[in-house]
Design a protein that fits this description.
By secondary structure, this protein is mainly beta. The chain contains 15 helices and 55 strands. A hairpin with a 2-residue loop joins β39 and β40. It is globular.
Length: 929
């Protein structure tokens, strides 16, 4: 058995202020198979540098990128029928098997004693376990637990994933859909190793349950999107879990549960835990969470609860009442050198660390832990000790030397047997000249000066070269039209050890043609005749549409029972592959609970006589349009991407600000973004509708539909955008604050899309930030093409923030369910998942305004903020960093920021130190008021 490579990191015995000694890249996350949503989250985090610089993340990614290989004499099993060959070995000679290929299972693989199983491929099992009452209502445990691998009293077992072998179940998080657990270790099992798997959409990742389970090691697994727990220990002794990356669990990332003794979680990463990142309770004793990294993020798991960090949850009353041995309490557990990052207001998050006041709870020890962005729970410190340093003698009977314990674990889990290289994500402009720098490949665990680098694959025509320092440069012709990306395999050697990594190089095409036809804020007195829209600012309208002046602001509004339309006279056109985009910021005051009130918006065209037929803006149908209508019951809305087809986006009143019980019948300001892309297929359009709540910043939903419309328009007429009311029987009030119309030629990247992924977002800010100050030709972040990456290029990015050229493919392995054909053939077919960002133009802030004459309240827009104002809460810190702020930064501020970047500067107190309240954070808070 060989695992390559395994790496010793630098030991972390330094003070808290200098803990971050390594720095991985976002590319390293991608190379380790971590999802794009995690990459995006870290990329836009306020604490990006601290997270990427943390040893736990670095060592965990190194573990995920390593692999064990099966012995050459392993018995190969490559069909479901072959699995019946798995039989117990002997103590002296365990049976060794290699499962190859992508298999769909109908039954659990029961693993007997003295068996080592390697998996190179994927195992899918839909499973049969459901919990209609919710994840807490029933447990998938016992000798008949539903699982892919199940051990019932089995000894000396290894389950090893080769090259991130995939164990997966039904690709959703619905507790009413059947799922399975990836690995279930039953009572009486001893000496078990689980290593190197990706586990996705399973009930539990690894569950060891219940009792008389000893000597279990769970390492180097990527466990994500579980309905219940990531790793669950109940009734185990001497369990070790290290270098596991656990993401978006329904309940806990790591759970040391009832009667667990001597369990150690070391250098695990938890992000998006639905309840606890890691916790102890109900009789757990002498167990540890050490150097864990937790990011409290909400990824929308429907089974999540309150979302917390590292916790001693004590003992429940049920446990106390039914405990046969009252001397076994939750006591003498340790939380050492952990860190928690909380970004913004995570729903129901209650703190970083706490020790709950529960019956039967003994001492807990919290040593050298930190938290950023949240704070300790109000229940914290019940029978608990908080120290800001690592004691050499402490805990039960002063028997724990924390410094020595960390050194021993470092020696156990961070072994040196290879070279690990970083994997930068880089881009190069179309036509970049020979010698242009591209990126740098650096080692995480070796001296770069002692290495020799070589590109060994993925470099047709010698397009790139790498020098003795790991610097990649352009060495041949680069043309977007010929090849839009390269995956370079780079090796480095010191003459003995060899390390390799893959570098994804994206070729940046010329900027796209994005034509903003108009972007109207209906503000009076710009519309000189506020009573009628006809003939003003390019609008044609029937009676019933007007602009209401609200102290200098305005709305186009209609409450007529007739079919009232308004159309702009600006012409747009779309050839195959091009996109029409309409954005509408609106609100509705619902007067009755009815489904008859509705309106449409989209595009229309002219006939040979110059009439709008069909027309979204006047009487009749429409060329292409979306539909908004009321949903009976709670006063919510339904939005359809095409007026007579497609699945609706259902928005209950609670999501859009309507509360009938409180007498509030008015929606929050909403933004609907509708896009129609003309297909290569004649008469076919790909239509997408996305909705967001501008008051809360929440994305409310998105739907897509293919529309067949053989309507044609000639070059002289084009397409016109508009909106019309229809069937407004109750005379509810439609108010439009802003109406925008664009055409997009996706043949190349959008201005500001510095990484050429089709979306102008926070990732492009990172490209600009890292290239700031560079000069030369064809720089990726040179948005205005003046030969220098400067503040003007930040403005290009900010002004185009939110623009989308095409759907962006989500990185990472698909966990789609097998097709019928795949199931029939015994293989699993996986397809890439996609993530289509909601496009967004200049955000508009809204406020409630009371009319002094009438006393009525209605929303009114204020002057739009610059495009660098927040488009989403997650990217707030980046967009608020405006060019003017950068330009006006004082020398004192620059020096202060530089000092903080090196983690210098003493915290104001021990508590501030523990929770990351640095002078810079406090100073920023003062500036923001």
């Amino acid at each position: 058995m060989i695992r390559t490579p395994r790496v010793r990191s630098r030991r972390r015995f330094e003070s808290l202020e200098t803990r971050c000694v390594l720095s991985v890249t976002l590319g390293d996350l991608t190379a380790a198979g971590i999802s794009q949503r995690v990459v995006d989250y870290i990329d836009t985090s306020t604490y990006e540098s601290q997270i990427l610089g943390d040893d736990t993340l670095a060592n965990t990614l190194i573990g995920l990128r390593s692999t064990q290989t099966a012995p050459q004499d392993a018995t190969v099993l490559d069909s479901v029928a072959d699995l019946a060959q798995i039989t117990a070995g002997t103590v002296a000679n365990p049976n060794v098997y290699l499962i190859q290929g992508d298999l769909t299972l109908t039954n659990t693989i029961a693993v007997p004693s003295n068996v080592h199983i390697y998996v190179d491929g994927s195992l899918f099992r839909q499973g049969s376990f459901v919990a209609p009452g919710g994840v807490h209502s029933v447990e998938n445990t016992g000798t008949n637990a539903d699982a892919i691998f199940r051990l019932n009293g089995s000894d000396n077992v290894k389950l090893i994933g080769v090259n991130d072998a995939l164990l997966h179940s039904t690709p959703n998080l619905d507790v009413n859909s059947p799922h399975t657990t990836a690995v279930f270790i039953g009572g009486g099992s001893h000496n078990v190793e689980v290593d190197g798997f990706e586990m996705a959409y399973v009930w539990n990742g690894v569950a060891a349950h219940p009792f008389n389970i000893r000597d279990v090691t769970i390492t180097n697994n990527y466990i994500h999107d579980t309905l219940d727990r990531g790793i669950w220990s109940l009734g185990t002794t001497n369990l070790r879990a290290a270098h596991n990356f656990v993401e978006n669990t329904g309940i806990d990332s790591l759970d040391w549960d009832a009667f667990t003794n001597d369990a150690i979680g070391y250098e695990n990463v938890s992000i998006g835990a639905g309840r606890f990142a890691g916790f102890v309770e109900e009789g757990t004793e002498d167990s540890y969470f050490i150097r864990g990294l937790a990011m409290i993020a909400d990824f929308g798991n429907p089974n999540r609860g309150f979302m917390l960090g590292w916790a001693d949850n004590g003992s429940s009353q049920n446990f106390v009442s039914n405990n046969p041995n009252p001397s076994e309490w939750t006591e003498h557990n340790y939380f050492i050198d952990n860190v928690v990052f909380t970004e913004g207001n995570v729903p129901q998050s209650g703190g970083d660390y706490f020790a709950k006041e529960n019956a039967g709870k003994g001492p807990t020890y919290f040593w050298a832990n930190r938290g950023f962005g949240a704070g300790q729970s109000t229940n914290f410190f019940f029978d608990a000790e908080w120290l800001t340093f690592l004691p050499t003698a402490g805990g039960r009977n002063n028997a724990v030397n924390a410094v020595q314990l960390l050194a021993d674990l470092d020696a156990e889990f961070n072994q040196v047997t290879g070279i690990v290289l970083s994997a930068p994500l880089v881009s190069v402009p179309d036509g970049a000249p020979i010698g242009s720098p591209v990126g740098v490949v650096t080692p995480l665990n070796a001296d770069v000066a002692a290495l020799t680098f070589e590109i060994v694959a993925g470099n047709p025509g010698g397009a790139f070269a790498i020098d003795e320092s790991g610097v990649l440069t352009v060495a041949g012709p680069i043309a977007f039209a010929t090849q839009s990306s390269y995956t370079l395999t780079v090796e480095a050697t010191d003459g003995s050890e060899v390390g390799s990594t893959e570098v994804l190089v994206t070729v940046v095409s010329p900027f796209a043609t994005v034509k903003r036809l108009f972007d109207h804020d209906f503000a009076a007195p710009v519309f000189s005749n506020a009573a009628d829209l006809r003939g003003q600012q390019g609008w044609t309208a029937q009676n019933g549409w007007s602009v209401i002046d609200a102290s200098g602001f305005g709305y186009a509004t209609s409450s007529s029972t007739a079919f009232q339309g308004v159309t702009n006279n600006t012409i747009g056109r779309a050839d195959a592959g091009e996109t029409l985009r309409v954005e509408i910021d609106f609100d509705i005051e619902v007067t009755q609970d009815t489904t008859s009130d509705q309106f449409r918006f989209g595009v229309t065209t002219l006939d040979a006589s110059g009439n709008f037929v069909p027309a979204v803006g006047n009487n009749g149908g429409s060329f292409l349009s979306a539909k908004v209508r009321y949903a009976a019951g709670d006063g919510g809305l339904e939005l359809f991407p095409e007026e007579d087809s497609g699945t609706a986006i259902s928005l209950p009143g609670a999501l859009i600000g309507i509360d009938r019980g409180a007498g509030d019948n008015q929606t929050d300001p909403l933004r609907a973004t509708w896009e129609a892309t003309k297909s290569e297929t004649s008469g076919q359009w790909d239509v997408t509708l996305a909705v967001e709540n501008l008051a809360t910043g929440q994305r409310l939903g998105e739907q897509a539909v293919t529309v067949d419309d053989d309507g044609v328009y000639d070059a002289s007429t084009g397409l016109f955008a508009g909106v019309r009311t229809l069937q407004n029987a109750s005379q509810s009030v439609f108010r439009i604050d802003r109406f925008a119309y664009q055409t997009i030629d996706p043949g190349s990247a959008i201005a500001g899309d510095y990484n050429a992924d089709g979306t102008v977002n926070a990732a492009d800010y990172t490209i600009w930030r890292d290239a700031f100050g560079q000069t030369g030709e064809s720089l990726p972040a040179d948005g205005d093409r003046d030969g220098e990456v400067d503040l003007d290029d930040h403005r290009v990015w900010a002004e185009n923030y939110g623009q989308v050229a095409a759907a962006s493919a989500a990185l990472g392995r698909s966990t789609a369910a097998p097709t019928a054909a795949a199931e029939a053939s015994g293989s699993v077919v996986t397809t890439p998942a996609t993530n289509t960002p909601i496009p967004s133009a200049t955000p508009v802030a809204f406020a409630r305004t009371v009319d002094a004459a009438t006393g009525s309240a209605f929303p009114s827009s204020v002057t739009p903020e610059p495009a660098a104002v927040v488009a989403t809460a997650r990217d707030a810190s980046l967009l608020l960093l405006s060019p003017d702020q950068l330009a006006d930064e004082s020398p004192e501020d620059i020096a202060f920021a530089s000092e903080y970047a090196g983690e210098a500067g003493a915290p104001t107190s021990a508590v501030d130190e523990a929770f990351g309240l640095s002078p810079l954070v406090l100073r920023q808070a003062e500036r923001l008021g």
